[in-house]
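About this split. The held-out portion is used to measure sequence recovery: a designer receives only the structure tokens and must propose an amino acid at every position. Recovery is the fraction of positions where the proposal matches the reference. Here is one held-out target exactly as it appears in the evaluation file.
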């Protein structure tokens, strides 16, 4: 038995670092769409897009081999769910460019003020 690692907490715990009150919650990014990414329709669409883009990242033109290839929805699923299986809305990216594109998309939609 040891004390919770949260500063000032005197709760005794048997495993881990934190008590139930202070345990960090896992963030489930994209959890609402997770079942979709396991479907055969999505896997077929990814294979089609990979062949269409000739296995290259559409942003930097670097060859992306097999499982390192990532596929990005240009218009996010939560904005237009009807386009989630549209090949024109999916592009092949390398992991580095996928992070950049995701951050650009998030920053554009984050601060929209109509003043």
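Reference sequence for scoring:
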């Amino acid at each position: 038995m040891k004390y919770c690692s949260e500063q000032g907490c005197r709760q005794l715990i048997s495993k881990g670092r934190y008590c139930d009150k202070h345990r960090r919650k896992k963030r489930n990014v994209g959890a609402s769409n997770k079942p979709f990414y396991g479907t055969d329709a999505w896997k077929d669409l990814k294979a089609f897009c990979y062949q269409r883009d000739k296995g290259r990242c559409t942003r930097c033109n670097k060859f992306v081999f097999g499982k390192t290839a990532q596929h990005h929805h240009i218009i996010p699923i939560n904005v237009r769910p009807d386009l989630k299986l549209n090949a024109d809305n999916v592009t092949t990216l390398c992991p580095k460019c996928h992070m950049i594109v995701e951050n650009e998309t998030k920053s554009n939609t984050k601060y929209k003020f109509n003043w």
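Annotator remark: The chain has two helices and four strands.
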